[in-house]
Each structure stands twice: as structure tokens, then as C-alpha cells.
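This week, think about what follows.
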Amino acid sequence: MRYDFGSDNTAGMAPAALEALIAANDGYARAYGSDDVTARAADLIRQRLDADAEIRFVFSGTAANAIALSMLAWPHEAVLAHHAAHICTDETGAPGFFGSGVGLLGLPGLSGKIEPVALQAILDEPEVGHRQPPAALSLTQSTEYGTVYTEEELRHLIEPVKLKGHGVHMDGARLANAAAAGFDLTQIARLGVDVLVFGGAKAGANCAEAIVMFDHSLARRIDNRLKQAGQTASKTRFLSAPMLGLLESGAWENGAAHANLMAQRLAAG
């Protein structure tokens, strides 16, 4: 037997996600996200986060991250992120493409977590006209290394950024794993995150992700932005239904808990 650890890319959909997709295929539904399935999925995400937010479902995490970052920084500005973050290493400049030139500034830190001293150092640098100044911070929870920021660690990174008047994005492609490890999802909005990518693909959905905008001002003309970017699904229920199935059944958290346990067993030999 071959064990493939790229399971979020190679495995099939979780049964609960697939069943919800099949159920959504029955009959007719309103288009472009105005259907009941999409409304229910968005409400469940709000419940998990215990926050009011504008939510849109898109086709990929890359698009979700890049569009979210384009809301937080102008083309002449940059986004701060860990140097191993997915937006820096695996998205082929998508933030710059969707952001019409938005830059990325990589920061160091062990195991995928940004080092607070390094963050503060770059925030303290004087702005000059010859390089892109930081305008936003991107955090990944859980990180590309599988580590999970504590609430306190996030606070130490977010507070100095917000004091500068900058925005905060969270890449939650693996958010289910963080939640299963004990991270309190209700703290995300309270910590000052402006826009979150709520992961579906790595949690057992198809290729669906949700852009969650806690700052409602970011949602101004969001549907125009998504349409232009090719991220508006006419049959949105086929993006939202798998997420609905995962959340209604508890499989979003349970599948991640199983994955975490298997990782711990592997680490223990």
C-alpha cells in the first residue's frame, strides 16, 4: 500500500461533503449565491466564528488569499508574511496579480510562525519612496509547518500592526486542524483579523473556500471584484453545499482531529 501525505490534494471528498453536494443537485435553485444552501453554509460559518461577517464562496484558496490581500493593500504597498507562507512560495505571484502590483515581504520565524521581533523591526523602518511600505499582515493558521499560533502569539503580532493602521488577513486553509487542536475560532474577529479565508478543500470539500470579511467595508463591490476575477459561480450552491455538509455533520472538525491524531502517531514513530 502507498501512503500519500498530500491528501488534501489527492484524496476524495469527505462523505458528508459529497452527500451534501448530491442533495444540492436535486431540483432548481436561485443563482449567484442567492440560494438557500449558500445562505445556510454562510450562517454556519458565522456561528463557528461567533461573528457577523460578509461571506463569499470561491473556487480556490489561491484566489481567496489574493483577492483578500488586494482589499488590504494598494498596488504601491506590500503585505508582510512568513517567508514560507503559501502566498510567498506557492501562489505564483497571485497577490501581486490580483492586487495590481501588491508586494510581499517575507519574515523569519521557526516552524512557520512569524518572529515578533522581526515583525516589529520592519514596522519600525522609515518609509521611503523607493520601496513598497507594508500595509497589511498575513497570518497562516495552522501554518505550513503544521504548527498552531496560540491566541497570545497572534495578539503579539496583530496589535502592533493594527496600531500602525494596517489590515490583517488570515489564511485558514488548515483552520480546521487548528480548531481541532484547541484553537478558539471565536477569537479570530476579536483579535482584529479583517478578512479570513475559511478553508474547505483541505477539510474534505471539493475546491471550495470561503472569504470571510469581518470588516464590512471590505465587502463594498465585492461581487464586482469576484466577477472580474472569474471567481463568481453561477451555481454557487455547488461550492457552498460541501461546506454545509462538513459543518452540519461536524466532519469539518472531526476529520481534522483524525488527521492531527495520525500526524502525532507518525511523529511518535
Q: What stands out?
A: The chain is about 45% helix and 15% strand. The mean pLDDT is 95.
